[in-house]
Amino acid sequence: MKPTNIHDPNYFHKVVDCQWACPAHTPVPEYIRLIAQQRYTEAYMVNWESNVFPGILGRTCDRPCEPACRRVRTEEKPVAICRLKRVAADHKGDITPYLPHVPKTKNGKKIALLGAGPASLAVARDLLPLGYEIDMFDRDPGGGGMMRSQIPAFRLPADVLEEEVDLIVNMGIDAYYNHEITSMREMLEMNYDAYFVGTGAPRGRDLDLPGRKEVADHISIGIDWLSSVAFGHTTSISGKVIVMGGGNTAMDCCRTSKRLGAENVTVVVRSAFHVMKASEWEKEDAMAEGIPILNNRPPKEFVHENGRLKGVVFERVKPIEDNGRLKYVPTGEPDVFMEADHILMAIGQENHCPWIERDLGIEFDKWDCPILDEDTLQSTHPKIFFGGDSAFGPENIIWASAHAHKAAISIHLFCQGRDPKKDRPPDGVNLISQKMGIHEWSYDAEHDPSQRYIVPHANLRRSLDNIKVEVELGFDEQLGFKEAQRCLNCDVQTVFTEKLCIECDACMDICPMDCITFTENRDEEELRANLLVPAENNEQDLYVSDHLDTGRVMVKDEDLCLHCGLCAERCPTNAWDMQKSVVHNPQLSSYAE
Amino acid sequence: MTFVAKPKIHHPLLKVNEIGLKRRDYEGLVSTLCAGCGHDSVSAALIQACSELSLPPHKFAKLSGIGCSSKTPSYFLGNSHGFNSVHGRMPSVATGANIANRDLIYIGVSGDGDSASIGLGQFAHAVRRKINMLYIVDNNGTYGLTKGQFSATNDRGSTNKRGVPNLYTSIDLVSMALQIGASFVARSFSGDKTQLVPLMKAALLHRGFAFIDVISPCVMFNNHDGSTKSYGYIRDHSAPVVDADFIAPQEEIEIYYAPGTAETVAMPDGSSLRLRKLEDSYNPRNRVDALAYVQNALDEGEVVTGLLYVEDDSVDCHEVLETPDVPLNSLDESVLCPGSAELAAVNDSFR
Ligand SMILES: Cc1cc2nc3c(=O)[nH]c(=O)nc-3n(C[C@H](O)[C@H](O)[C@H](O)COP(=O)(O)OP(=O)(O)OC[C@H]3O[C@@H](n4cnc5c(N)ncnc54)[C@H](O)[C@@H]3O)c2cc1C
Ligand SMILES: Cc1ncc(C[n+]2csc(CCOP(=O)(O)OP(=O)(O)O)c2C)c(N)n1
Ligand code: SF4
Ligand code: SF4
Ligand code: SF4
Ligand SMILES: [Mg+2]
User: Fold this and answer.
1) Among B4, B30, B43, beta carbon nearest to A445
2) B108 three-class SS
3) β-strand A349-350 against A203-204: which pairing, if any?
4) Interface residue A432 vs chain B (CB under 8 A)
5) Which residues are CB-neighbours of B58 under 8 A, at least 6 positions away?
């Protein structure tokens, strides 16, 4: 193999599995260390810069970082990254001194944000410090998009939402709420310098089964129902409720029903339990509240009598593996009839913008998604950019933030007459030695063998009685500290300098995870098979040195490294050094003076 | 010295040996030697050899004298017996222990100071008595622990860290062991585990006195340019003459060797050793030839490594002394005091 180029910004970035997996590339270990040092405000700001909504995300994030966490590979359970984000938010002090300065004199460019969801808000946050004037339009009475209209208060309290939304709005957005956008042409006639479409994926899917029309009054589309609960139009639901669907919306619907007075709530899913779209923890929380989830039951028809819903007939199927894909075949058992007074349909969302005229030069694909440049999020109309759920279909908040950073750079370059694709600044990486003295590192290198700590929950009775009671209580400072100690500091990298190595084997001998091997160079496949312990996880890179004096190379399998620093401790010549990698994924703030 | 504790967790794919243990189960405390000390690699090689042989850790006795090298038994086989004796006196303690309990596997770790300076006489007699043990000398040409004085294996003309040359000829422990009658003699380098580990495995199963002189650089006091025991010097001047492949009894795999280059030595437990000659004129089964070769090479400034001599049908101290088949501590009173009738019979035999 060729020697590894550690100055490629992606090389060490990939070693920080969580940060690499985070769409907004939040420097996770960095903020976790700050939490352990009780520097909550700084930990919060590290988050705020990357993902814009730490308090909200610390409760609701989809957490792509956690399954990626190295600790899953070394010891099973990931660090509770998301819950630690909340610790930073819950315990932070005054952040005003750290906020970016928004200039009074504007730069003369005006931007329109369509929709006031997380995507638009994050674009505004990035553009305001550069002097842009921003108008934001939304049909809802306040900002936040689905974070306000969909995510129930028992998962995301209103004050947490408002604090982070208002912070951005108050940076100087001109917000036009209760403003339905009905024509893109009209918007274009208002002649903004650029447009950002962040209107989400606002249409809930429906199911046209026999009886659907007759019982229309007893069926609600999940997301419409949740928003009418969020805005106080719906305050109760009675009788037997069936929630159809297996995603997070279904979980929010069933838990909300339970709190609004349903006599009994059942979730019925057409597919198997393990392939449901809902996150593991959402399913667990629903079941812990006594809500049964019935799987492998596709609905067949709505049964009604004199215009009243009686219930639903479900087929029974079982999943079988067919070429790695699940196929469902009937079990042969008789269909089941389940009584219901109300049905909440939570079987997915789709993009839908009937208000964008199709003759404006904005092209759409066959799924009704706009055709975009993936690097710039620019549409086929140069002035118009998309982000969040409106771009590629329903995702989540962290993707909305990530898109927003990208789009903000594009909008800025576009407004400055530069090329949004070619003129983007490149990624970069800085490496900073963490050595403080003999046996002293500026990070806590010691490996903490503790198991993941469990987040305490509010009393079940109390939370089922009141939709505003937040279920998760979050870690207190002490638990937060303990959980923070589980982080392996994967951003403190093992950096190898060939010319210093005397090939004494000390590092190889001490490494607890057998990461390091000195061997003859071969091609990657052969090297992987011939290390001290074979490197079977091909998703993780091998770090290969240049040739050493004996002609051999140093090969380090990054997969299970604990970043314990023992290799560097035992190296007599400092050929290994522990260096913090600071990855720069450019954000608009890097353009500001 | 290492202050960060070595984490207890290990690679999930780490192999389990025949007795259900992993390599990590053969470790000891974390070393307090200087970072990069060759002695730590020797300990690591021992850990690997013992775990690959699936030997039970509690069946080992580790013995040592004084020196950095003599500290190393703390750093491997944490769950075994051990005795850290006075300077140069490990061979006597090993002799006593071995005679008393023949069931344990004896590993003596010593230094060049411990064995070639203060303990030279002790060393010679352990060899001569064919004590059944693996005797390792971590040979760095210096007194590491006492801050770098020349030891008796330091070559004449080689300098210390400040550039002062050594005035005396060195003692070659390999030549001594060959001459006094060791039945297994090898030399290796701490920086070459592919050679060292199979040698250790063979030596652990050898019956009789097995000696390995391991050149093991002292990074602190003897790894400079004027040294003949530095990592660089040894890499440039070592000449492997015989490779030994250790073959466990169950793995009678047929390795192909060019005709005439490989010889097989049967081991007491059914395993075997394949000797592969890298140097045609070398004869590892003839004591006199081996000694002559090693001495000639020394004169030419070459450090000969590999399995330099091995005796078929070797003999150990228990055979020489006709000791009982079982450890002495397992003999009960009726055996040790057989009664007045036995005594009378013995007395009668002298009349
Ligand atoms: C029930 C439910 C629960 C969810 N839970 C989570 C969660 O726990 N964690 C998570 O990360 N994500 C969750 N999501 C997904 C997340 O809310 C969205 O991915 C995210 O809000 C998308 O952000 P956005 O800015 O692209 O659009 P949105 O948040 O959808 O905002 C779009 C805004 O545009 C406005 N708008 C749309 N059309 C018009 C128009 N024509 N005129 C005026 N205004 C318009 C809407 O009113 C809305 O305010 C959930 C989604 C649902 C449905
Ligand atoms: C009787 C006695 N004399 C002298 C000493 C001082 N002393 C301690 S270690 C040592 C030399 C050790 O050298 P070596 O055996 O080569 O071990 P190394 O530290 O080099 O591994 C000496 C002379 C002592 N401890 N005891
Ligand atoms: S930091 Fe070094 S010693 Fe520790 S696990 Fe990683 S490679 Fe091994
Ligand atoms: S400990 Fe240092 S000098 Fe020794 S082999 Fe490892 S990197 Fe090289
Ligand atoms: S002084 Fe020399 S022999 Fe002793 S531990 Fe340090 S490097 Fe090893
Ligand atoms: Mg010595």
Assistant:
1) B4
2) strand
3) antiparallel
4) no
5) B79, B80, B81
| B89 CA from centroid of ligand 2 (Å) | 11
Query: What CATH architecture applies to the domain A205-348?
Result: 3-Layer(bba) Sandwich (3.50)
Task: Read off the pLDDT of residues A342-379 as tens digits, 9 standing for 90 and up.
Answer: 999 999 998 888 999 999 999 999 888 999 999 999 99
B11 interaction partners in chain A (CB closer than 8 Å): 513-514, 533, 560
In chain A, CATH 3.50.50.60 covers 100-201+351-415, 205-348
Residues whose beta carbon lies within 6 Å of some atom of ligand 2: B 66-69, 87, 111-114, 118, 138, 140, 142-146, 151
**In chain A, residues 70-89 whose CB comes closer than 8 Å to chain B:** 74-75
Q: How far is the centre of ligand 6, averaged over its atoms, from the C-alpha of B38 (Å)?
A: 11
The pTM (predicted TM-score) of the whole model is 0.91
pLDDT value at residue B253: 47
Asked if the B23-317 domain carries CATH number 3.40.50.970, the reply is yes
Nearby residues of A241 by Cβ (< 8 Å), 6 or more positions away: A254, A257, A262, A264, A265, A266, A340, A341, A342, A343, A344
Residue with tokens 């411990």: B114
CB contact burial A44-63 (16+ within 10 A = b; e otherwise): bbbbbbbbbbbbbbbbbbbb
ipTM metric? 0.90
Strands (DSSP E) found in A497-560:
516-519, 542-544, 553-557
Contact: B38, A536; criterion CB under 8 Å:
no
3.40.50.360, 3.20.20.10, 3.50.50.60, 3.90.190.20: which CATH number matches A100-201+351-415?
Answer: 3.50.50.60
CA A12 from centroid of its chain's CA atoms: 21
Average of per-residue pLDDT values in chain B:
93
Q: Report chain A residues whose CB lies below 8 A from the CB of B13.
A: 533-534, 536
Cβ neighbors of B300 (< 8 A, separation 6 or more) are none
Q: What percent of chain A has pLDDT over 70?
A: 99
Q: Tokens for A361, please give them.
A: 């030069």
> What would the two tokens of residue B320 be?
């020489």
pLDDT per residue over A553-591, tens digit each?
Answer: 999 999 999 999 999 999 999 999 999 999 988 888 766
Q: Which of B4, B41, B232 sits opposite A569 (nearest CB)?
A: B4
Report d(CA A449, CA A446) in Å as an integer: 10
First-to-last C-alpha distance (Å) of chain B: 66
Smallest-distance ligand from the CA of B33: 5
